[in-house]
Amino acid sequence: MKPHYPAHFCLCLSLILFSCNHKPNIIEKKEVVSSFEKSFGSVSDDEGRSIIRDNNNLLILGSTKGMKDSQGDFYLVKTSLDGELVWEKSLGWIGDDFGKCIAAVNDGYILGGDIHEGNGDLDIGIIKVDSAGKELWKKNFGGAMDDQVFDIVTSSDKLSFYIVGRTKSSGSGDFDVWVIKSDLNGNSQWQKTYGGVANDGGSGLAFLPDGNFLIYGYTESSGAGGRDLWLITADANGTEISSETFGGAGYEEPHNILRTITGNYLLCAHTASIDQLHNLFAIKVNSFSVPIFEKEVGGDMHDGGEAVIQGKSTDFLFTGYTSSFGNDNQAYFVKMKSNGDLILQEGYGGSGYERGYDIVETDLGYVIVGETNSIGKGGKDLYLVKIAK
């Protein structure tokens, strides 16, 4: 395989200006890999959606159409911290299955995705695996219509987990926010829907210090117009206490919510309320959902955020997609100070299409997972790129 180099565009206080054709070499060392770009998959379509660190390894969940079921399966990949493959697994049902999120519990991992098998056309599929990736059980949740998952969040004791998504099978309107609390055997402890007469959905969940929690999503039933970001405060049983909307007259799309080191919360999204081509959108709020800052990041073209983490340095690290930096469609990396000041933004990828969906911190850098058709075996492949600190 020919070597592949990312295109970097940094916003920093420097007198050095890089031309659009500048492509620095990826730094590679035999002792410790400080930066890499890799792909995994088959000759068909594969991608990565969610990544977590497991001691000295990385666990990635996505989907594959080239391992067992050509319609699509969950694609579970384990690598070392330097991106070397340990094992890969294909799991799922008979129909088209699409893996989207992974979370660690005390005796394994919970995998979540959308499946075309169950009570309706689209259901939520949950698979529990052990540390070796062996399936322990699988269950589906849903009614007669479409239901989807967007996040899996484990409780602090890792003895239960929450499924966050949207449902058309129950609730007040078109789609509603849907949250399910489950034990480690996949038994529902309670289910709640939230929403109005229009289209609403959930994308994430974060815990509050008092035992309540915040549900992050979108609403078209209320707000400033179009689709707005929606933050619901609920008690430990899922009963709604209050809610707030954020956004302008245009379109906002939520992705994940992060509890910060100082006990505030950062909402990762993209917005078209000011720039109709979309920008990455970050909102920091306190535990009462009062905004501390709102920041838009992007260039002249289409840009958006998919995930955010807070590093040990306290900086916020985002990934997503950008058409403003690098080639037309690149995986997006943004570094922002904890006060919202932009440090840098970069595009990663080749001559084709890349997109970042999730990000994790390691000792020596940050690893983005997503999809690419610039490198790999064919179609699109799972994309893994490590950015040195």
How would you summarize the topology of this molecule?
Elements: E1 36-40, E2 46-54, E3 57-64, E4 73-80, E5 85-91, E6 97-105, E7 108-115, E8 123-129, E9 135-141, E10 147-154, E11 160-167, E12 176-183, E13 188-194, E14 200-207, E15 213-219, E16 228-234, E17 240-246, E18 252-259, E19 265-271, E20 279-285, E21 291-297, E22 303-310, E23 316-322, E24 330-336, E25 342-348, E26 354-361, E27 365-372, E28 381-388
Structure description:
By secondary structure, the chain is mostly beta strands. The protein has one domain: Methylamine Dehydrogenase, Chain H (7 Propeller). It has no helices and 28 strands. It has a four-stranded antiparallel beta sheet with strand order 1-28-27-26, with no helix packed on it. It has a four-stranded antiparallel beta sheet with strand order 2-3-4-5, with no helix packed on it. The protein is globular, with a radius of gyration of 20 Å.
